[in-house]
Predict the 3D structure of the following.
Amino acid sequence: MAKLVLVNHWSEGIGNNKLPLGLGYLAAYLKKYLDFHDLAIVNTGDQTFEKIAAQHPEIVGFTAYTAGYYDVVALLKRVKQELGVSTLIGGPHVTCLPEQLPLEADIGVVGEGEETLLELMKSHEMHNGFTAEGLEKIAGIVYWEKGILKQTPPRAFITPLDKIPPPDRELLQIHEFLKPTQILMTNEYLRGATMLSSRGCPFKCIYCHVQSKWGKPRLHSAERVASEVEELVKKYGVEGIYIEDDLFVSSLKRIQDITAELKKRNVWGKVRFFVDLRANLVNPNLVRALKEMGVVKVALGLESGSERILHYLKGGDVTVEQNRQAVRILNEFGIGCHCCFMVGAPHETREDIQQTQALIREILDLHPRNFCQVTVVTPLPGTELWKYALEKGFVSRTPDWKQFSLSPLQSKNRDFYVNEHIPFDEFLKIVEETTNIANSRRLHSILTRFSWRYLRRAIADPKLAWKIVKNYFLNR
Ligand code: B12
């Protein structure tokens, strides 16, 4: 079978310090169900092209978000032109805009990729390459046939989710990512790793495409989750795990079962967790269960202090009071909250943003472990907000994706500005003002969190000590 290379390429941004688990799943699936091992993963960094070429691939598959898409396509074009190999592209951007498949990409993979890639590899083998005859039978793809773009019907999701083996972390070169890092967004430098325990989310936030593209939540069993944790702890010495699920907390029973499984496997208490929550699901029972599992910090998308804007952004199933209450409950259990806020929604006024600023102050005063982050509302393809921005003429159907090269929510880009009330230049000042409020109590919270364990690490590792000083005292 043809040699396959999977590529994760970020020229900048925060995408390049996390394991691209999606590619790890693809590799593991091919190994398990096709007994196919002639594959490699090239991870981002310098000389990505040279690294790909050195593998002598016949097929190269790229993953791409909207952020960074431009850079990925530039690399894909170079690979096509200089190596003359077959090229595939998958991930959120192509999934949301399959009709914009670049000419140099032979095939775009729409949505969940494991089974699709397996069928593509088989078809390539059977037809001695990617042919129209073979491709038309494969669900979930777009491809070029004599210059015309063809799309096959959508592919059904894989169930149960446990059918998909854990991501191939060896092939992802997990060792490169295991240095103590601030991966959990706590102030502790831990040997951190990421994992996923589910796919999908039932809620309908207008800035997120997950509900429409990943369907109803599918959960890994508690046994499967615990066995992955066990491997991370025992094989790789991991101390902190960020569970990156869209909605980790959809089942209280599963959280309790995971804890029981961790205890059975003798890893309970040896690892700390960081998970994302949704405020309307937070109650003391849930938080007790999370705490028992080992969760030390959570992220919450509180988004706005204005009821009207919150309702608009999150579809009306969470209130500002529920947000406030969720943070209070978590803090009472000693769990710090990483609270994410957004400014710049279409109908947002200065007064709405003032309410957000007030809520940020209130949350920072509640607990030294609370942390607030401010980003700009950005219409991303595949979301309700994208449709709205198109209708209103705020964005073009084919914008300059280069503008998305850097993480868009941080780049404060005029091209994707959707607010109708505040002139952009004034808006930038308001963003800065709001960010300053969010940062204002950071030094205080850092000082209250210094621990011996942390200091010992810093003393033993001068490079780490310098990194900490730089991060905490010079950059912020
Ligand atoms: C973890 C995560 C991150 C992590 C790690 C990313 C990484 N290196 O893997 C971090 C924190 C870095 C991150 C950052 C951002 N993220 Co993010 N992230 C996620 C999250 C929660 C999970 C990603 C994941 O592992 N998914 C699970 C795997 C199984 O899915 P997958 O990677 O898409 O891969 C599958 C398919 O897409 C397909 N596939 C993918 N690639 C390929 C390639 C080939 C060849 C084939 C055949 C198939 C294939 O098959 C895979 C297996 O089924 C998703 C939400 C989600 N549910 O996906 C958001 C998500 C991907 N992120 C999103 C966004 C917006 C961002 C940011 C821009 C946010 C920001 N701060 O500005 C940044 C961009 C990074 C940057 N430039 O700095 C959006 C992307 C939307 C879009 N249109 O691009 C998502 C969908 C969330 C959302 N709410 O809409 N993110």
